[in-house]
Amino acid sequence: MLLKLKSVSKHYQMGETTIKALNEVTLSIKEGEFIAIMGPSGSGKSTFLQVASILAQPTAGEIFIKDKDVTQYDEVERSRLRNKEIGFIFQQFNLLPRTSALDNVALPLVYAKVGTKERDERAKAMLNKVGLGDRIKNTPAQLSGGQQQRVAVARALINNPSIIFADEPAGNLDSKSGEEIKRLLIDLNKEGKTIIMVTHEPDDAAIAKRLIMFKDGVIVDDSKIKGGKEIAAKSEKVAGNGEKVKAQLKSKKNKVEKLKRTKNKLKK
Ligand code: ADP
Ligand code: MG
């Protein structure tokens, strides 16, 4: 098994109250899977990504990567393992601002102690792969949002990681750039990369093959993805009250507008 969580919890102590951001989550992820993570705001999606990518340590439970128990790894061991096995794509790109695309992409190789020449060659090849071969000298400010996210994808891939984590990768992009990033993720999965992606858009989730829904820090649904419509329905069901209230407000607004229209007609 590539990644396994056994009864993993992440609790935050806020004064007197304990926030159970993740509560005894158990799941297994095989190589080559493409997983969409959905759930209402505050349901624990980002916490799950942080804990599963061994960025944050769980409060309880066990984590296995390639069948190795990594739960007790210290900071140094974790960052070494992350550098080797894990790529992360953030909603806000998280690139170094005054640094060229090439150097941004090559950075994980600096930590991996790869020599300058090989670093540049590999970073160049990776930027080519994401369609930015002609923009390697540009800094993030000289690139569009979509291009910046492609640099971030290249950086996530540079160490040939086993798992790519993405937290709303298209969340800050216009629809065309979002489509490009989605296409990249689809292609990467076709090449065999395992992808775990948080999204709140049913259309984005539809590019994955397995859907995991969170609510209040627990997994409430884990199933194969068939189509976008089914995802939207599930997402609404899990969202529950918040979405219901929104729908009610909308229907109220529609009723008021209808009344206004009728009134106007009567005036005429
Ligand atoms: P999501 O990504 O689904 O919106 P999060 O994983 O960010 O949810 O948060 C889950 C819950 O944990 C929320 O109630 C949030 O307020 C809380 N939480 C997240 N990070 C922290 C933190 N560093 N300290 C305290 N509470 C946190
Ligand atoms: Mg989040």
How is this structure best described in words?
With 268 residues, this protein is α/β, with parallel strands linked by helices. It has one domain (3-267): P-loop containing nucleotide triphosphate hydrolases (Rossmann fold, 3-Layer(aba) Sandwich). Helices cover 43% and strands 24% of the residues. It is built from 9 helices and 10 strands. The chain has helices at 45-52, 75-85, 101-111, 116-129, 145-157, 175-190, 202-205, 228-239, 241-267; strands at 3-14, 17-29, 34-38, 60-65, 68-69, 86-89, 163-167, 194-198, 210-215, 218-224. The strands form 2 sheets. The chain has a 6-stranded mixed β-sheet with strand order 6-7-8-3-9-10, with helices on both faces. Strands 2-1-4-5 form a 4-stranded antiparallel β-sheet. α3 (101-111) packs across α4 (116-129) and α5 packs parallel to α6. Adenosine-5'-diphosphate binds at residues 12, 14, 19, 21, 39, 41-47.
Q: Profile the largest sheet.
A: 6 strands, mixed
| Tally of alpha and pi helices | 9
Unique ligands:
adenosine-5'-diphosphate, magnesium ion
Second CATH tier, the architecture: 3-Layer(aba) Sandwich
The helix/strand series, from N terminus to C terminus, equals: EEEHEEHEHHHEHEHEEHH
Question: Beta fraction of the residues?
Answer: 15-25%
Distance between the amino and carboxyl termini: 71 Å
Q: Which homologous superfamily in CATH is the superfamily?
A: P-loop containing nucleotide triphosphate hydrolases
- Specify Rg, calculated over alpha carbons: 21 Å
